[in-house]
Specification:
This protein is elongated. The chain is of the alpha+beta class and 496 residues long. The strands form 2 sheets. Strands 7, 8, 9, 10, 11, 12, 13, 14 and 15 form a 9-stranded mixed sheet that branches. The chain has a 6-stranded antiparallel sheet with strand order 3-2-1-6-5-4, with helices on both faces.
Length: 496
C-alpha cells in the first residue's frame, strides 16, 4: 500500500464495510474516519491513532496484535491491514452466530426426543467436528442409586457398540467430576485415557468403535445437571477450547429443548397408552391409575366389585333404516357425546360403545365407597339428558329418542384383555351379562337395577316399583327395581 491514494481508497471501502457491521455511533468508526481525514490533509493526530490501537488490540486475533504493541504512532498502512484482519474476524464471528441461530431454530422445531437429537446431529457439524453424538441422562434406580443411562446415539459409521440402555453408576464414573463442576471435558487421545482408566467400560467400547477424541458437555437446567452430550471423533486431537465455548452459547437452550421434547414424548406415549387400553373417554384420575406402576391394574386381571351400567336407545335400529348413513352417524354422535359427558361427570369409566348402546363401569380401575350410588345417579341424569339430545337433533325429521338403562352390581374380573397387538381394559363376569339383560327389560325412559344394586343404595334411593322377571340365560326369576331418584337426583318427566 505504498501509493497513498490507493491506501485511502482501500481504507474508505473497509470503513464502509465495518460500518455496516457495527453500530453507527461507534467510537472505532468515528476514530477511523477522523484519522482518514487527517491523512488526507497530511496531518497526524496521535491521540486518535492510540484510540484506534486500543480498540484494534481488543478485537483482532492475538497473533496480529504484535504490530500494535509498541508506542509508535500507527501508520495508515497498519490501519488498513488491521482493518482487514478485523473484518475477517467479524465475518468468522458472524458465521458462528448464524450457525448457532440456525441450530437453535432447527432443534426447537422438533417435538419428539429422537427428532430433536437428529436435528442436533445434522446441525452441530457446522460448529463442532464429530463422527458420533450420544446423549445420556441421569436417573434414579429403584434401589436409590444415581445412574447415567444412554438414551440416544447416532454416528456416520457402524456399528455403535455403546447403545441405548447402557447404564453406569454416576459416582463411580468420570462423569461425576463434570456433574460437580458443570464444565465440559476434552479427551484428545482416548487410547491413552483408557490406559490410565482401565476400568472404564464405556471408554473401552468407544475405543472399539474407533473413537479417538471426545468432547463431553453437561446438560444443565436450573443449575442442575440432568445429563450429558458426547461429541466424538475418529480423529485424535480434534477438540479445542473454542468448541467448548461454542457449545456454551447454546447449552442452556439445548438442555431445555431436550427436556421439553422428553416431556412431550412422555405425554404423547401416556395418552396413546390410555387411548389404546381405555379408549378416549377417561377421567384424569383413571388415567393416573392406569399409568401407575403401583396401581390397581395387573396383567390378567383381578377380582373387583363394580356396578355395570348398560344403556341402549329404543327403536333406533328400525328408525335408522329410513335414514342415510350420514344422518345415522350424526344422530348417534349427538347421543353418545351427551351420554359420555354425563358418565364422566359421575366418575364412570366407559367400557365400550356398541352401536347405539353404551357400557359404563363404576369401581375400576379406582374403587370408591359410593361407586353404586354414583352409578344410579348417573343413570337418572342420563335419562334427564335425553331432552337435550332430542333438542339437538330437532329438525332431522326424527321422532324423539328414548333410552332404557340396566344396572347390576357384583364381582367381576377387571384387567387388560386381548393380545400384544390389541389390548383393552375391560370387565368380565356374570354381572355384565345381568346388566345387559336388565337393560332389555326397560322401556324408554326407565332404569332398572338389580337386587344387589338396590341393596347398596336402599337407604337413599327411590323406587317406583319392582318385578320378578325371567331373564334369558338364568334358571330362576330375578327381582329388578325401577329407580327414579337418589339423593338430589330425580327423573324429570315431560309434561303430558
Amino acid at each position: 500500500m505504498a501509493d497513498r491514494d490507493a491506501i485511502i481508497d482501500h481504507l474508505q471501502t473497509e470503513i464502509a464495510a465495518l460500518d455496516s457491521r457495527l453500530e453507527t455511533d461507534n467510537e472505532l468508526i468515528r476514530s477511523l474516519q477522523e484519522q482518514l481525514e487527517a491523512h488526507k490533509s497530511r496531518t497526524s493526530d496521535n491521540r486518535r491513532t492510540q484510540v484506534y490501537r486500543r480498540a484494534a488490540m481488543d478485537m483482532i486475533p492475538d497473533g496480529d496484535q504484535l504490530q500494535f504493541s509498541n508506542s509508535a504512532p500507527v501508520i495508515i498502512e497498519d490501519m488498513g491491514e488491521a482493518l482487514v484482519a478485523l473484518g475477517g474476524r467479524l465475518d468468522h464471528k458472524f458465521a458462528e452466530i448464524k450457525a448457532l441461530s440456525e441450530i437453535t431454530q432447527r432443534v426447537n422445531a422438533g417435538m419428539f426426543f429422537d427428532e430433536v437429537l437428529n436435528h442436533v446431529f445434522e446441525s452441530f457439524i457446522a460448529i463442532i467436528p464429530y463422527n458420533r453424538i450420544g446423549i445420556a441422562l441421569i436417573e434414579e434406580s429403584k434401589s436409590g442409586q444415581t445412574l447415567v443411562r444412554a438414551q440416544w446415539g447416532r454416528a456416520d459409521y457402524a456399528p455403535i457398540l455403546l447403545g441405548k440402555g447402557y447404564a453406569a453408576i454416576l459416582e463411580r464414573s468420570s462423569l461425576q467430576a463434570i456433574a460437580d463442576t458443570q464444565e465440559p471435558r476434552i479427551i484428545n487421545d482416548l487410547e491413552d485415557y483408557l490406559g490410565a482408566h482401565e476400568k472404564s467400560a464405556s471408554s473401552r467400547l468407544m475405543v472399539r468403535e474407533g473413537i479417538r477424541s471426545s468432547l463431553t458437555c453437561p446438560l444443565v437446567i436450573k443449575n442442575e445437571v440432568t445429563g450429558f452430550i458426547f461429541f466424538s471423533s475418529l480423529s485424535a486431537g480434534e477438540y479445542r477450547d473454542q468448541h467448548m465455548e461454542l457449545y456454551a452459547q447454546i447449552a442452556g437452550e439445548l438442555a431445555l429443548t431436550l427436556e421439553k421434547s422428553r416431556a412431550y414424548e412422555d405425554l404423547y406415549l401416556r395418552n396413546e397408552f390410555i387411548t389404546k387400553v381405555f379408549g378416549q373417554h377417561v377421567t384424569n384420575e383413571v388415567a393416573a391409575a392406569a399409568l401407575s406402576s403401583d396401581g390397581p391394574l395387573t396383567l390378567g386381571g383381578e377380582r373387583r366389585k363394580v356396578t355395570v351400567l348398560m344403556a341402549d336407545l329404543r327403536g333406533f335400529t328400525p328408525m335408522s333404516e329410513k335414514m342415510s348413513p350420514e344422518e345415522v352417524v350424526d344422530a348417534l354422535n349427538v347421543f353418545l357425546g351427551s351420554m359420555t359427558e354425563v358418565i364422566m361427570d359421575h366418575g364412570g369409566n366407559i367400557d365400550n360403545f356398541i352401536g347405539d348402546a353404551i357400557m359404563a363401569v363404576f369401581g375400576v380401575p379406582i374403587a370408591k365407597e359410593d361407586d353404586t350410588a354414583r352409578a344410579v345417579a348417573c343413570a337418572i341424569e342420563m335419562q334427564n339428558a335425553m331432552a337435550m339430545v332430542n333438542a339437538k337433533i330437532e329438525g332431522r325429521d326424527l321422532p324423539d329418542l328414548t333410552m332404557g338403562i340396566g344396572l347390576s352390581t357384583g364381582d367381576v374380573v377387571a384387567g387388560n384383555i386381548g393380545s400384544e397387538m390389541r389390548v383393552k381394559f375391560s370387565v368380565i363376569g356374570a354381572v355384565v351379562n345381568l346388566a345387559a339383560r336388565i337393560e332389555g327389560m326397560a322401556s324408554g325412559g326407565q332404569g332398572f337395577a338389580s337386587e344387589a344394586t338396590l341393596d347398596d343404595v336402599r337407604s337413599e334411593a327411590r323406587v317406583a316399583g319392582s318385578l320378578n322377571v325371567q331373564l334369558k340365560g338364568l334358571s330362576a326369576p330375578v327381582p329388578i327395581h325401577e329407580i327414579t331418584g337418589i339423593g338430589d337426583c330425580e327423573i324429570v318427566r315431560a309434561p303430558e
